[in-house]
Each structure stands twice: as structure tokens, then as C-alpha cells.
Amino acid sequence: MTALDSRPQAGRSLAERLGIDRSVAIAFGCILVILAGGALYSREFLSPDYLLQQLQIGAFLGVVATGAMMVILLGHIDLSIPWVVTLGAMMATAMVGWGGAAGPVLAIPFGILCGAAVGLLNGLGVAYLRLPSMIFTLGMNAVVQGLMILHTGGSAPQDQATPAMHFIAVQRTILGIPNALIVWAIVGALVIFLLKRTAFGRNVYAMGNREAAAYLSGVSTNRVLIICFMISGALAAFAGVLLAGYSNKAYQNMGDAYLLPAIAAVVLGGTNILGGRGNYLGTIAGVILITLLQSILSVTQMPEAGRQIIYGVVIIAMLLIYGRGARTRV
User: Fold this and answer.
1) pLDDT tens string 34-51
2) How is domain 22-40+62-323 classified at the CATH fold level?
3) Other Cβ atoms within 10 Å of 21 Cβ, number
4) What pTM did the predictor assign?
């Protein structure tokens, strides 16, 4: 029993009594505040169509944040996300021309596979070369950027998204719910199962709390680390595939807008950026919060520089809050 569990029931907050993490409760509280503020600005802000549209847009960020969370839980960070997103989009659309008749069928899996390959290289570099993840993944981001510029000749690629990519990213087939939102829900359900119901998930939390202790207890730390980086790469590339389907094409720098928001969403949801603490419900809350915040900033015509400042301040503030706390598993 933890110290928190031994506290008198009367001394606990409502969130604790309901079994909800305090940071998750705060994130959902902020969502309600933003919704209330948006409703005061415009009545359309709370309309079902508008909210579904925001969730559809948030689904792309949600897929990226899911992979980012897997790495952050280990106490690492993946800064190759921006160009892995672009890689997934460009390789998926390029496969249409490369693969002949099978190209449209192979497009989506090929884009995801390319992202997983970058994640594999990231994991190998961090696990076996013992290089800081921040530095190594930043270098890989530059490498992928160079490869994509070579691929396109520095101009916008002419390849188009497949009908399947457009269908997944844009269409609504079940009760008017965007397919992209359903895809995010499926990805989230798989990650929740992985983290909460498998030995691999327990090993992720154990490594995040103390990697040396996990290694001494028999955990294959290098294998866990590599798999998490591969998941991050694959999901970033998958988000790129969805974005290509949404815009009907791939383009340069399409992933640049997702790095800071993805990290901010994970950290806002209560995942300790130093590892070992966090749950996926918090990441969902963080993604929705960031998406609504972006919507508010767009409506108020906040410049991009101001948005980046806000994301940076959020990350630093949450690092100060959670970085000083105990690394306890939630």
C-alpha cells in the first residue's frame, strides 16, 4: 500500500476518491474551461459538427502523441517525429507509382514500415551506442530530412494519396463519426492493453522508474527500448499517412507542426517527462486540450510564434512540476 492509499478517505480529493489521477482531472478541467470560453465567443463552438471536426483533426495529433508517450515513459524522447511524419506520407504516396497495380494496396503499410525502420535505427543507437536519445533522434531527423529532399528534388512531390488513405482520414461511415477518430480509438485501445495487460507494459514502467534495477531484475532493457522507439516511428509515419489522405498529398515539412504539441499533450496528461509515470487517459485529455487550445488560438488569430511559445512554456512548466516528484508508477 502506498502513502496515498493510506490517507484517510476524508482527506482525499474528489479525483482521488474516483480513482482518477490528479493531473488527468486537471487536464479535463482545463478542457471544460476552454469549451466554456469558446462557447462565450461563438455559439458554434459547442455544436456537434464543430466538436467532431476538432476531434477528427485531433486524431492525427493523438496518433503521434501515442508513439511519443511510449518513448517518454522510458525517460527518453523522440525528436525525429517531424520528418518521420513527412517520411510516412511521402513514402506511402510514392508507393502508388512504384508498386504498379499493387501500389495502392501496399501504400499504407509501406509508409508505416518506413517509420518503423527509422524507429529501429533510433532504438539501436540509443540502446547499444548509449547515446542520448535527444541528440541521436535529432540527428536522425536531419538524416530523414535530407533523404526526403533528395527524393523530391527539393520541391513538392507530385504523388497523390490513395482513395483508401482519403477514406480513412476524411470520411465518416459509422454514425457520422470520423474514421480518423475511430482509427485513433483503435490505436489507443491497443496501447492501453499493451501497457496495462502485458509484461511488456510492466517492463516499460519499470525501466522508466529505474533502468538499472529493471535490467538487474531480468528485463531485456535494450529490446524494450528498441520496440518503443519502433512504435513511436511507426505511429508517426502512420499519422503522416493520415495527413496525406486528409490533404490528398504529401508535402515538405508537414510534420513540423506536431513535435511540440505531441510532447505537450503527453506531458499535460500527467506523463512524467523523466519516465516511469503516466497513463493513456491523460494523453487523450492532453490531445483534446491541445487541439481545442489550437482552435481557440486560430480563432483569435494568434501568430504561429505565439503558439510555439505557449507550447514551450507548457512543457517547461510541467517538467518543473513532475520532474521534482517521485517517479512512481500509476
Assistant:
1) 888 888 777 777 888 888
2) ABC transporter involved in vitamin B12 uptake, BtuC (1.10.3470)
3) 19
4) 0.87
What amino acid is encoded at 187 in this protein?
Answer: V
**What DSSP designation does 153 have?**
T
User: Can you tell me the mean pLDDT for 158-178?
Assistant: 87
Task: Find out whether 62 and 188 touch, Cβ atoms under 8 Å.
Answer: yes
Contacts of 185 (CB under 8 A, 6+ apart): none
Distance between CA atoms of residues 101 and 87, nearest Å? 22
Residues 1, 161: Cα–Cα separation, whole Å? 53
Pairwise CA distance, residues 66 & 321, whole Å: 22
Each residue's pLDDT tens digit, 302-323: 787 887 787 777 767 766 765 5
Q: What is residue 319's predicted lDDT score, i.e. its pLDDT?
A: 62
| Contact indicator for 153, 145 with CB cutoff of 8 Å | no
Strands 177-178 and 172-174: antiparallel
